[in-house]
Design a protein that fits this description.
This protein is an alpha/beta fold and 175 residues long. The protein has one domain (8-168): Rossmann fold (3-Layer(aba) Sandwich), CATH 3.40.50.300. Helix content is 52%, strand content 11%. Strands 2-3-1-4-5 form a 5-stranded parallel beta sheet, sandwiched between helices. It is globular, with a radius of gyration of 15 Å. ATP binds at residues 15-20, 119. Pathway: Metabolic intermediate biosynthesis; chorismate biosynthesis; chorismate from D-erythrose 4-phosphate and phosphoenolpyruvate: step 5/7. It is an enzyme of class 2 (transferase). Belongs to the shikimate kinase family.
Length: 175
């Protein structure tokens, strides 16, 4: 890990547990948590509303800038919004970083996301939209990640432990 790189970057679809696991990782390691959704909408903001207000093109441009800033945070635990990997420049920035793809099945994600939860791109039929977006983004998550953890049947603490073990094996967090 470079001294100017994040300690770990979490990517994955909505409902995979990125925010929860990010908080656990930050707490466990004493590192700063940086979430692009929070950068965009503020700590009490609604990224779904922001998406609707800005429209997808302007939202994705803002998300790209938020991701660039987050990925420049030395030693941070970075959580990227689910769609951040759709941007070529963001994926290029992820190369050679300790990226973990938190994967999740549709069956496990739907109750976590909630059918009425304000998610930026899950307007209309949430199940169909989620399934379509997950399939579209999956290759980008896999391309970007060094490790993958399926969170479908794990609790957040188990996911955190698994991520820490991958990072320890890669000597990226404590080096």
């Amino acid at each position: 890990m470079s001294e100017t790189s994040p300690a770990v970057v979490l990517v994955g679809p909505p409902g995979a547990g990125k925010s929860t696991v990010g908080r656990l990782l930050a707490h466990a390691t004493g590192r700063r948590l940086v979430e692009t959704d929070e950068i965009l909408a503020g700590p009490d903001g609604d990224v779904g509303e922001l998406f609707l207000d800005l429209g997808e093109e302007r939202f994705r441009a803002a998300e790209r800038e938020a991701a660039a800033g987050a990925l420049a945070e030395p030693g941070a635990v970075v959580v990227l919004g689910g769609g951040a990997v759709s941007d070529d420049r963001t994926r290029a920035r992820l190369r050679d970083l300790p990226v973990v793809f938190l994967d999740v099945s549709l069956a496990a994600a739907v109750p976590r996301v909630g059918l009425d939860a304000p998610r930026p791109v899950l307007v209309g039929s949430p199940r169909a939209a989620y399934k379509s977006l997950a399939a579209e983004r999956r290759p980008w998550y896999l391309e970007s990640a060094r490790w993958t953890v399926d969170t479908s049947e794990l609790d957040p603490e188990e996911v955190c432990t698994r991520v820490l073990s991958y990072l320890d094996q890669g000597s990226t967090l404590d080096s």
